[in-house]
Protein backbone atom coordinates (compact mmCIF):
# COMPACT_ATOMS: atom_id res chain seq x y z
CA UNK A 1 0.00 0.00 0.00
CA UNK A 2 1.13 3.50 -0.62
CA UNK A 3 2.93 5.08 2.29
CA UNK A 4 1.33 8.42 3.08
CA UNK A 5 3.88 10.07 5.29
CA UNK A 6 4.26 13.83 5.47
CA UNK A 7 7.75 15.28 5.61
CA UNK A 8 8.91 17.77 8.16
CA UNK A 9 7.87 21.15 6.80
CA UNK A 10 9.12 23.86 9.11
CA UNK A 11 7.52 27.13 10.04
CA UNK A 12 10.62 28.73 10.65
CA UNK A 13 22.28 11.96 15.81
CA UNK A 14 27.15 9.77 20.08
CA UNK A 15 28.76 7.28 21.92
CA UNK A 16 26.11 4.83 20.81
CA UNK A 17 24.31 5.68 17.59
CA UNK A 18 21.83 8.39 18.61
CA UNK A 19 20.66 10.76 15.62
CA UNK A 20 20.71 9.76 17.23
CA UNK A 21 20.83 12.02 17.35
CA UNK A 22 19.21 11.11 16.27
CA UNK A 23 18.81 11.13 19.41
CA UNK A 24 20.81 9.36 16.78
CA UNK A 25 20.36 7.87 13.48
CA UNK A 26 18.67 4.48 13.42
CA UNK A 27 21.25 1.74 13.18
CA UNK A 28 21.06 -1.59 11.44
CA UNK A 29 19.27 -4.27 13.41
CA UNK A 30 21.10 -7.56 13.79
CA UNK A 31 19.77 -11.06 13.68
CA UNK A 32 21.51 -12.76 16.57
CA UNK A 33 20.88 -14.90 19.60
CA UNK A 34 20.32 -11.66 21.47
CA UNK A 35 17.05 -11.28 19.60
CA UNK A 36 15.73 -14.49 21.07
CA UNK A 37 16.59 -13.23 24.52
CA UNK A 38 14.91 -9.93 23.73
CA UNK A 39 11.76 -11.72 22.66
CA UNK A 40 11.58 -13.61 25.94
CA UNK A 41 12.37 -10.51 27.96
CA UNK A 42 9.82 -8.39 26.12
CA UNK A 43 7.09 -10.93 26.69
CA UNK A 44 7.94 -11.16 30.39
CA UNK A 45 8.03 -7.40 30.79
CA UNK A 46 4.73 -7.04 28.99
CA UNK A 47 3.08 -9.68 31.17
CA UNK A 48 4.36 -7.90 34.26
CA UNK A 49 2.81 -4.70 32.97
CA UNK A 50 -0.58 -6.33 32.56
CA UNK A 51 -0.46 -7.40 36.22
CA UNK A 52 0.77 -4.10 37.63
CA UNK A 53 -2.29 -2.70 39.40
CA UNK A 54 -2.87 -3.28 43.09
CA UNK A 55 -6.07 -3.55 45.05
CA UNK A 56 -5.94 0.09 46.15
CA UNK A 57 -6.51 1.35 42.63
CA UNK A 58 -2.93 2.52 42.19
CA UNK A 59 -1.69 2.68 38.62
CA UNK A 60 1.65 1.61 37.16
CA UNK A 61 2.77 3.00 33.81
CA UNK A 62 5.62 1.36 31.93
CA UNK A 63 7.98 3.62 30.00
CA UNK A 64 10.61 2.36 27.55
CA UNK A 65 13.24 4.80 26.32
CA UNK A 66 16.87 5.09 25.22
CA UNK A 67 17.97 7.96 27.46
CA UNK A 68 20.75 5.83 28.95
CA UNK A 69 23.46 8.49 29.03
CA UNK A 70 24.10 9.44 32.68
CA UNK A 71 23.14 13.09 32.30
CA UNK A 72 20.06 12.49 30.16
CA UNK A 73 18.91 9.72 32.48
CA UNK A 74 19.30 12.08 35.42
CA UNK A 75 16.93 14.54 33.74
CA UNK A 76 14.37 11.82 33.01
CA UNK A 77 14.49 10.59 36.60
CA UNK A 78 13.90 14.08 37.95
CA UNK A 79 10.94 14.54 35.63
CA UNK A 80 9.40 11.24 36.74
CA UNK A 81 9.90 12.16 40.40
CA UNK A 82 8.03 15.43 39.85
CA UNK A 83 5.25 13.59 38.03
CA UNK A 84 4.86 10.96 40.74
CA UNK A 85 4.79 13.66 43.42
CA UNK A 86 1.88 15.36 41.66
CA UNK A 87 0.17 12.05 40.81
CA UNK A 88 0.46 10.02 44.05
CA UNK A 89 -1.65 7.17 42.69
CA UNK A 90 0.68 6.61 39.71
CA UNK A 91 3.96 4.71 39.72
CA UNK A 92 6.23 4.96 36.67
CA UNK A 93 8.46 2.03 35.84
CA UNK A 94 11.03 3.21 33.35
CA UNK A 95 13.25 0.88 31.34
CA UNK A 96 16.23 2.64 29.73
CA UNK A 97 17.90 0.66 26.92
CA UNK A 98 20.53 0.95 24.23
CA UNK A 99 19.31 1.97 20.77
CA UNK A 100 19.44 -1.30 18.83
CA UNK A 101 18.29 -3.66 21.61
CA UNK A 102 15.39 -1.29 22.21
CA UNK A 103 14.22 -1.55 18.61
CA UNK A 104 14.39 -5.32 18.68
CA UNK A 105 12.67 -5.58 22.04
CA UNK A 106 9.86 -3.17 21.15
CA UNK A 107 9.18 -4.83 17.79
CA UNK A 108 9.01 -8.21 19.51
CA UNK A 109 6.75 -6.87 22.25
CA UNK A 110 4.43 -5.28 19.70
CA UNK A 111 4.13 -8.56 17.82
CA UNK A 112 3.34 -10.40 21.05
CA UNK A 113 0.80 -7.83 22.24
CA UNK A 114 2.99 -7.06 25.27
CA UNK A 115 4.02 -3.50 24.47
CA UNK A 116 4.78 -0.88 27.16
CA UNK A 117 2.35 1.93 27.89
CA UNK A 118 4.68 4.64 26.57
CA UNK A 119 7.55 4.19 24.14
CA UNK A 120 10.08 6.29 22.29
CA UNK A 121 9.69 6.81 18.54
CA UNK A 122 11.66 8.24 15.63
CA UNK A 123 8.65 8.96 13.46
CA UNK A 124 8.82 8.13 9.77
CA UNK A 125 8.20 4.67 8.38
CA UNK A 126 9.26 3.07 11.66
CA UNK A 127 6.34 4.65 13.53
CA UNK A 128 3.96 4.38 10.59
CA UNK A 129 4.21 0.60 10.54
CA UNK A 130 2.97 0.45 14.14
CA UNK A 131 0.23 2.99 13.38
CA UNK A 132 -1.02 0.89 10.46
CA UNK A 133 -1.08 -2.19 12.70
CA UNK A 134 -3.30 -0.35 15.19
CA UNK A 135 -0.66 -0.46 17.91
CA UNK A 136 -0.47 3.29 18.58
CA UNK A 137 -3.04 5.37 20.44
CA UNK A 138 -4.54 8.26 18.48
CA UNK A 139 -3.46 11.31 20.53
CA UNK A 140 -3.90 13.86 17.75
CA UNK A 141 -6.42 16.01 19.62
CA UNK A 142 -4.27 16.02 22.77
CA UNK A 143 -1.19 17.04 20.80
CA UNK A 144 -2.98 19.84 18.99
CA UNK A 145 -4.07 21.30 22.33
CA UNK A 146 -0.42 21.76 23.34
CA UNK A 147 1.17 22.13 19.89
CA UNK A 148 2.06 25.79 20.30
CA UNK A 149 5.00 24.97 22.60
CA UNK A 150 6.79 22.86 19.96
CA UNK A 151 8.80 23.95 16.94
CA UNK A 152 7.01 22.83 13.80
CA UNK A 153 10.19 21.10 12.67
CA UNK A 154 9.99 18.77 15.65
CA UNK A 155 6.23 18.26 15.65
CA UNK A 156 5.98 17.44 11.96
CA UNK A 157 8.27 14.44 12.37
CA UNK A 158 5.36 12.58 13.92
CA UNK A 159 2.56 13.57 11.55
CA UNK A 160 1.10 10.68 9.59
CA UNK A 161 -2.03 11.03 7.45
CA UNK A 162 -2.64 14.49 8.92
CA UNK A 163 -2.58 13.23 12.51
CA UNK A 164 0.06 13.45 15.22
CA UNK A 165 1.03 10.11 16.76
CA UNK A 166 3.79 11.19 19.15
CA UNK A 167 4.91 14.22 21.13
CA UNK A 168 8.45 15.48 20.44
CA UNK A 169 11.08 15.77 23.12
CA UNK A 170 14.21 16.10 20.99
CA UNK A 171 15.04 17.60 17.62
CA UNK A 172 18.18 18.80 15.94
CA UNK A 173 20.03 19.32 12.69
CA UNK A 174 23.11 17.48 11.42
CA UNK A 175 25.50 20.29 10.43
CA UNK A 176 29.14 20.36 9.43
CA UNK A 177 31.34 20.73 12.51
CA UNK A 178 34.76 22.25 11.91
CA UNK A 179 38.00 23.08 13.71
CA UNK A 180 38.04 26.88 13.99
CA UNK A 181 41.75 26.92 14.87
CA UNK A 182 42.69 25.13 11.65
CA UNK A 183 40.50 27.47 9.63
CA UNK A 184 42.11 30.49 11.25
CA UNK A 185 45.67 29.24 10.79
CA UNK A 186 45.11 28.46 7.10
CA UNK A 187 43.05 31.57 6.37
CA UNK A 188 39.96 29.59 5.38
CA UNK A 189 36.44 30.99 5.33
CA UNK A 190 33.23 29.16 6.12
CA UNK A 191 32.00 27.92 2.71
CA UNK A 192 28.60 28.84 1.34
CA UNK A 193 28.81 26.56 -1.71
CA UNK A 194 30.10 23.05 -2.21
CA UNK A 195 32.65 24.44 -4.69
CA UNK A 196 34.03 26.62 -1.89
CA UNK A 197 34.02 23.61 0.45
CA UNK A 198 36.02 21.59 -2.08
CA UNK A 199 38.52 24.45 -2.42
CA UNK A 200 38.97 24.41 1.37
CA UNK A 201 39.44 20.64 1.27
CA UNK A 202 42.25 21.01 -1.26
CA UNK A 203 44.04 23.52 0.99
CA UNK A 204 43.66 21.13 3.90
CA UNK A 205 45.03 18.24 1.84
CA UNK A 206 48.00 20.36 0.77
CA UNK A 207 48.75 20.95 4.45
CA UNK A 208 48.54 17.30 5.45
CA UNK A 209 45.12 17.54 7.10
CA UNK A 210 42.28 15.11 6.38
CA UNK A 211 39.30 17.19 5.21
CA UNK A 212 36.60 15.01 6.84
CA UNK A 213 36.75 12.65 9.80
CA UNK A 214 34.52 9.63 9.15
CA UNK A 215 33.95 6.42 11.06
CA UNK A 216 31.49 4.48 8.90
CA UNK A 217 31.63 0.92 10.21
CA UNK A 218 28.03 1.20 11.41
CA UNK A 219 27.02 2.72 8.05
CA UNK A 220 24.79 5.58 9.23
CA UNK A 221 27.57 8.22 9.63
CA UNK A 222 28.41 8.18 5.92
CA UNK A 223 24.73 8.19 5.03
CA UNK A 224 24.47 11.72 6.46
CA UNK A 225 26.70 13.07 3.69
CA UNK A 226 24.75 11.24 1.00
CA UNK A 227 21.46 12.70 2.22
CA UNK A 228 22.92 16.21 2.40
CA UNK A 229 24.31 16.00 -1.13
CA UNK A 230 21.11 14.55 -2.61
CA UNK A 231 19.09 17.23 -0.81
CA UNK A 232 21.35 19.95 -2.20
CA UNK A 233 21.27 18.44 -5.70
CA UNK A 234 17.57 17.67 -6.01
CA UNK A 235 15.83 19.69 -3.33
CA UNK A 236 13.27 18.36 -0.91
CA UNK A 237 10.57 17.66 -3.47
CA UNK A 238 12.67 15.19 -5.44
CA UNK A 239 12.95 12.86 -2.47
CA UNK A 240 9.30 13.27 -1.51
CA UNK A 241 8.15 12.52 -5.04
CA UNK A 242 10.28 9.38 -5.19
CA UNK A 243 8.95 8.28 -1.82
CA UNK A 244 5.32 8.98 -2.65
CA UNK A 245 5.65 7.44 -6.13
CA UNK A 246 4.49 10.71 -7.68
CA UNK A 247 4.34 10.66 -11.46
CA UNK A 248 7.52 9.16 -12.89
CA UNK A 249 9.69 10.08 -9.88
CA UNK A 250 12.12 7.37 -8.78
CA UNK A 251 15.19 6.84 -6.62
CA UNK A 252 17.17 6.72 -9.86
CA UNK A 253 16.78 10.48 -10.24
CA UNK A 254 20.00 12.17 -11.29
CA UNK A 255 20.23 13.95 -7.92
CA UNK A 256 20.80 10.63 -6.14
CA UNK A 257 23.31 9.52 -8.76
CA UNK A 258 25.19 12.83 -8.57
CA UNK A 259 25.36 12.55 -4.79
CA UNK A 260 26.97 9.14 -5.14
CA UNK A 261 29.36 10.40 -7.79
CA UNK A 262 30.52 13.26 -5.59
CA UNK A 263 31.09 10.94 -2.63
CA UNK A 264 33.25 8.63 -4.72
CA UNK A 265 35.13 11.57 -6.17
CA UNK A 266 35.90 12.79 -2.65
CA UNK A 267 37.00 9.32 -1.55
CA UNK A 268 39.42 9.12 -4.50
CA UNK A 269 40.76 12.59 -3.71
CA UNK A 270 41.51 11.56 -0.14
CA UNK A 271 38.94 13.73 1.59
CA UNK A 272 38.29 10.92 4.10
CA UNK A 273 40.62 8.84 6.28
CA UNK A 274 41.91 5.67 4.69
CA UNK A 275 39.71 2.73 5.58
CA UNK A 276 36.85 4.95 6.80
CA UNK A 277 34.38 2.07 6.46
CA UNK A 278 36.35 0.18 9.11
CA UNK A 279 36.51 3.03 11.64
CA UNK A 280 33.95 2.91 14.44
CA UNK A 281 32.23 6.19 15.27
CA UNK A 282 30.46 4.77 18.32
CA UNK A 283 33.74 3.97 20.07
CA UNK A 284 35.17 7.37 19.19
CA UNK A 285 37.52 6.57 16.31
CA UNK A 286 36.50 9.37 13.97
CA UNK A 287 35.89 11.83 16.79
CA UNK A 288 39.48 11.41 17.95
CA UNK A 289 40.69 12.27 14.44
CA UNK A 290 38.70 15.47 14.68
CA UNK A 291 39.65 16.39 18.25
CA UNK A 292 43.36 15.80 17.59
CA UNK A 293 43.44 18.12 14.58
CA UNK A 294 44.21 15.33 12.12
CA UNK A 295 40.86 16.07 10.43
CA UNK A 296 39.24 19.48 9.97
CA UNK A 297 35.53 18.61 9.63
CA UNK A 298 33.01 16.04 10.72
CA UNK A 299 29.38 15.74 9.57
CA UNK A 300 27.32 14.56 12.52
CA UNK A 301 24.00 14.80 14.30
CA UNK A 302 23.14 17.24 17.05
CA UNK A 303 24.28 14.74 19.68
CA UNK A 304 27.87 15.48 18.69
CA UNK A 305 27.66 18.75 20.62
CA UNK A 306 27.07 16.92 23.90
CA UNK A 307 29.69 14.28 23.04
CA UNK A 308 32.35 16.88 22.31
CA UNK A 309 31.57 18.93 25.42
CA UNK A 310 31.88 15.82 27.59
CA UNK A 311 34.89 14.21 25.91
CA UNK A 312 36.99 17.27 25.04
CA UNK A 313 35.75 20.34 26.97
CA UNK A 314 38.77 22.49 26.05
CA UNK A 315 38.36 21.69 22.36
CA UNK A 316 34.66 22.40 22.67
CA UNK A 317 35.21 25.85 24.13
CA UNK A 318 38.11 26.93 21.94
CA UNK A 319 38.09 25.02 18.66
CA UNK A 320 34.59 23.82 17.77
CA UNK A 321 32.53 25.61 15.16
CA UNK A 322 29.64 24.54 12.98
CA UNK A 323 27.95 25.61 9.76
CA UNK A 324 24.99 24.66 7.62
CA UNK A 325 25.79 22.35 4.72
CA UNK A 326 26.74 24.48 1.68
CA UNK A 327 24.49 24.67 -1.36
CA UNK A 328 25.39 23.31 -4.79
CA UNK A 329 25.47 25.90 -7.53
CA UNK A 330 22.93 24.82 -10.13
CA UNK A 331 21.27 22.42 -7.70
CA UNK A 332 17.60 22.56 -6.77
CA UNK A 333 18.20 22.46 -3.02
CA UNK A 334 17.92 25.63 -0.95
CA UNK A 335 20.08 26.73 1.98
CA UNK A 336 17.14 26.66 4.37
CA UNK A 337 16.39 23.00 3.63
CA UNK A 338 18.22 21.04 6.28
CA UNK A 339 18.91 17.49 7.41
CA UNK A 340 17.89 16.48 10.92
CA UNK A 341 15.77 14.26 13.07
CA UNK A 342 14.27 13.80 16.47
CA UNK A 343 12.52 11.64 19.02
CA UNK A 344 9.04 11.60 20.47
CA UNK A 345 6.90 9.64 22.90
CA UNK A 346 3.93 7.58 21.70
CA UNK A 347 1.29 5.79 23.75
CA UNK A 348 0.32 2.20 23.03
CA UNK A 349 -3.25 1.59 21.92
CA UNK A 350 -3.41 -1.15 24.56
CA UNK A 351 -2.61 1.25 27.42
CA UNK A 352 -5.22 0.78 30.16
CA UNK A 353 -4.74 4.29 31.56
CA UNK A 354 -4.44 6.64 28.57
CA UNK A 355 -5.29 9.79 30.51
CA UNK A 356 -2.51 9.27 33.03
CA UNK A 357 -0.15 8.18 30.26
CA UNK A 358 -0.83 11.39 28.36
CA UNK A 359 -0.16 13.43 31.50
CA UNK A 360 3.20 11.69 31.84
CA UNK A 361 4.01 12.31 28.18
CA UNK A 362 3.22 15.99 28.66
CA UNK A 363 5.65 16.09 31.59
CA UNK A 364 8.36 14.35 29.57
CA UNK A 365 7.92 16.79 26.69
CA UNK A 366 7.25 19.99 28.60
CA UNK A 367 9.22 23.20 29.04
CA UNK A 368 10.56 22.37 32.52
CA UNK A 369 11.93 19.10 31.17
CA UNK A 370 13.35 20.87 28.10
CA UNK A 371 15.15 23.49 30.18
CA UNK A 372 16.63 20.83 32.44
CA UNK A 373 17.78 18.78 29.44
CA UNK A 374 19.42 21.83 27.86
CA UNK A 375 21.18 22.87 31.07
CA UNK A 376 22.20 19.41 32.25
CA UNK A 377 22.89 17.43 29.09
CA UNK A 378 23.31 20.05 26.36
CA UNK A 379 20.50 18.55 24.29
CA UNK A 380 18.01 20.42 22.11
CA UNK A 381 14.42 19.31 22.48
CA UNK A 382 12.41 21.07 19.79
CA UNK A 383 10.42 22.72 22.57
CA UNK A 384 9.98 26.48 22.65
CA UNK A 385 10.66 28.77 25.58
CA UNK A 386 14.03 27.30 26.55
CA UNK A 387 16.75 29.68 27.70
CA UNK A 388 19.71 28.27 25.76
CA UNK A 389 22.88 29.40 27.49
CA UNK A 390 25.37 27.68 25.18
CA UNK A 391 26.20 29.62 22.00
CA UNK A 392 26.78 26.45 19.96
CA UNK A 393 23.44 25.01 20.99
CA UNK A 394 21.88 28.32 20.04
CA UNK A 395 23.40 28.02 16.56
CA UNK A 396 21.81 24.59 16.27
CA UNK A 397 18.48 25.98 17.43
CA UNK A 398 18.70 28.76 14.86
CA UNK A 399 19.11 26.20 12.07
CA UNK A 400 15.85 24.59 13.14
CA UNK A 401 13.91 27.81 13.58
CA UNK A 402 15.05 29.35 10.28
CA UNK A 403 14.59 26.27 8.10
CA UNK A 404 11.78 25.88 5.61
CA UNK A 405 12.08 22.08 5.52
CA UNK A 406 13.80 19.41 7.57
CA UNK A 407 14.63 16.15 5.86
CA UNK A 408 14.41 13.27 8.30
CA UNK A 409 17.20 10.71 8.14
CA UNK A 410 16.39 8.21 5.40
CA UNK A 411 16.81 5.19 7.67
CA UNK A 412 14.16 6.66 9.97
CA UNK A 413 11.86 8.03 7.29
CA UNK A 414 11.82 5.02 4.98
CA UNK A 415 10.39 1.55 5.64
CA UNK A 416 12.90 -0.65 7.43
CA UNK A 417 14.18 -2.71 4.49
CA UNK A 418 14.55 0.30 2.23
CA UNK A 419 16.19 2.32 5.00
CA UNK A 420 18.69 -0.44 5.68
CA UNK A 421 19.44 -0.77 1.97
CA UNK A 422 20.09 2.98 1.81
CA UNK A 423 22.76 2.60 4.49
CA UNK A 424 24.29 -0.43 2.76
CA UNK A 425 24.44 1.18 -0.68
CA UNK A 426 25.97 4.34 0.77
CA UNK A 427 28.51 2.23 2.65
CA UNK A 428 29.36 0.54 -0.64
CA UNK A 429 29.72 3.93 -2.34
CA UNK A 430 32.30 4.98 0.25
CA UNK A 431 34.03 1.63 -0.17
CA UNK A 432 34.07 1.99 -3.97
CA UNK A 433 32.46 -1.44 -4.29
CA UNK A 434 29.42 -0.26 -6.24
CA UNK A 435 28.64 2.49 -8.71
CA UNK A 436 26.31 5.45 -8.14
CA UNK A 437 24.07 4.14 -10.91
CA UNK A 438 23.87 0.65 -9.41
CA UNK A 439 23.22 2.02 -5.92
CA UNK A 440 20.34 4.09 -7.28
CA UNK A 441 18.96 1.13 -9.23
CA UNK A 442 19.09 -1.08 -6.14
CA UNK A 443 17.21 1.54 -4.12
CA UNK A 444 14.55 1.90 -6.77
CA UNK A 445 14.06 -1.86 -7.07
CA UNK A 446 13.45 -2.12 -3.32
CA UNK A 447 11.24 0.98 -3.36
CA UNK A 448 8.99 -0.66 -5.93
CA UNK A 449 8.43 -3.49 -3.44
CA UNK A 450 8.09 -1.40 -0.28
CA UNK A 451 6.27 1.64 -1.63
CA UNK A 452 3.94 0.02 -4.14
CA UNK A 453 0.58 1.73 -4.59
Automatic annotation (TrEMBL):
Record-linked InterPro entries: Bact_solute-bd_prot1 (IPR050490), SBP (IPR006059)
Residue stretches in coiled coil: none
Biased segments, Basic and acidic residues type: 36-56
PROSITE patterns per UniProt: PROKAR_LIPOPROTEIN
Region listing for Disordered, in residue ranges: 22-57
Region forming the signal peptide: 1-20
Pfam family name, one: SBP_bac_1
Keywords noted in UniProt: Signal
Keyword Lipoprotein: no
Highest taxon above the source species: Bacteria
Name by which UniProt lists this protein: Extracellular solute-binding protein
Organism of origin: Enterocloster bolteae
Amino acid sequence: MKKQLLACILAASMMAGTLAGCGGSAQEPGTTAAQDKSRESAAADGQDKKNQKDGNGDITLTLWHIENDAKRLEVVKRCIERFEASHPNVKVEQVPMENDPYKTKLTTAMAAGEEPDIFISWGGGWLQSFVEEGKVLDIDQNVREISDIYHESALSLFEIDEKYWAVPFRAGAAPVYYNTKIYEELGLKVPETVDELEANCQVLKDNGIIPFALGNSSQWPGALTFIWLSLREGGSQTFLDAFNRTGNATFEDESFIKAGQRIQDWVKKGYYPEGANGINYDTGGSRMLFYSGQAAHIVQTNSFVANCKSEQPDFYENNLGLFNYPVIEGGKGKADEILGGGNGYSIAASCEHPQEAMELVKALTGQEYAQDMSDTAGILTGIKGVDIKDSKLQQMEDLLVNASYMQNFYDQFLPTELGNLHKQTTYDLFGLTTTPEQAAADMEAQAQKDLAK
